[in-house]
């Protein structure tokens, strides 16, 4: 699905947005429609999962202010973020930021999610109509807003029928509590199921799918990306740098950093793919670009991708990510990246099912 993009100059001064010649920090941010919808979102999405566990509330507010300063209008969160069951730590941080005013809420497309457990009793998790109603009201209260722009199912619920899910979602939309709906971690056939069930109800259905997608994890290219393009869903990649392994991990280790990528599954993956990652970092050095920005830019070159999710822990990390939005990779570099990180399947350069069949 082709992306319709537009560039805009965004400035933030004294909590007010201006279109006139800026005084101070200026960013040129590119925007695109979220899937087939008319909703315009920035080509980078601010992920907030670090807000609370890794980043203080004050620093989180500074990051969100700087995001607006750069023209990022698309923020992603979830009711479970903060990882204290039932507390909605990250949503509360965002809600307190909205409450500061200065058109913060009006200038933000806020996406949140439900599915994960928010309590120890039945019906405090997944996608029953009861949990959808309760979870939406709780997120609205924490976010200190009267509507959610994009409400996403954090995972597929195999036990709840689509008729029940879409009826509950349609009530939220009729009440003005939610405008658009999306999915996350869906298989291609789940997207098809959801879309066709919505079609029978005359409902808009899904406008986005949030999937893990990066140079090292390209499985969505087999079925999810084609399904999303067919049904008009914008794809929002999470973990775009594969837990930091595509962010210059070897260089950072030499400099005494990269602690997040030096333990657990990231450490195992680093050892397994060390030679490939080393070649990747050398390629990035040859073209004079930071590996993290190359990884993000590669995603922005993929057909159907709306906005990779960046998850800065500091304002500086956010600032450093902005280069990705304007970085254009030529055919030669894209070809070398495909050689280093091949598409899945024995015939990965072809679409499914030819990628794995005749």
Automatic annotation (TrEMBL):
Residues 43-340 form the NADP-dependent oxidoreductase domain. The keyword Oxidoreductase applies. One of its GO terms (cellular component) is cytosol. InterPro entries: AKR_Detox_Biosynth, NAD(P)_OxRdtase_dom_sf, NADP_OxRdtase_dom. CDD domains: AKR_AKR12A1_B1_C1. Transmembrane segments: none annotated. Gene3D superfamilies: NADP-dependent oxidoreductase domain. PANTHER family: NADH-SPECIFIC METHYLGLYOXAL REDUCTASE-RELATED (PTHR43364), REDUCTASE (PTHR43364:SF5). Pfam families: Aldo_ket_red (PF00248). It comes from Lentzea waywayandensis. This is Predicted oxidoreductase. The keyword Oxidoreductase applies. GO terms for molecular function: oxidoreductase activity. SUPFAM superfamilies: NAD(P)-linked oxidoreductase (SSF51430). Keywords: Oxidoreductase.
